[in-house]
Amino acid sequence: MVVWLHGTYAPAQAAAVYRANVFPEGVTMNRILAAACAAAFLALASTPPAGAQDKPPEKKLTVQQQRMKDCAVKWKAEKAKTGVKGRDAYRKFLSACLKNKS
User: What own/partner pairs with CB < 8 Å and gap ≥ 24 does 45-54 have?
Assistant: First the structure.
């Protein structure tokens, strides 16, 4: 027999009364939930922001890529000046622009 504050209980009853007094209903779940929230917060707080990471150095354009870029700028100017449209006109202009190596 175990003597408790409010009476005498059998060992099985004593354990149940102890658990009920130490861990009232819902407290255990609240503790688990609080621990999970704290762990999630710490995990998120310890990771660096996406913008803080070092960016890789920019690649240099090859000669062909630079020509394509220059011709694209020239095409925009040509299109604004003459008002030409269409894929065929663009391809013809691009071909002539890429052949001109100056």
Answer: none
Residue pair 75/94 in contact by the 8 Å Cβ criterion = yes
Assess whether 18 and 47 both reside in one domain. yes
Residue-wise pLDDT tens digits, 11-54: 666 666 666 665 566 667 777 888 888 888 888 777 766 665 66
In-domain check, residue 58: no
Half-sphere exposure at residue 101, Cβ-oriented, CA atoms within 13 angstroms: 2
Rounded distance between C-alpha atoms, residue 85 and residue 96, angstroms: 16
For 25, the domain range is 2-52
The Cα 99–Cα 92 span in angstroms is 11
* Pair (9, 47) in one structural domain: yes
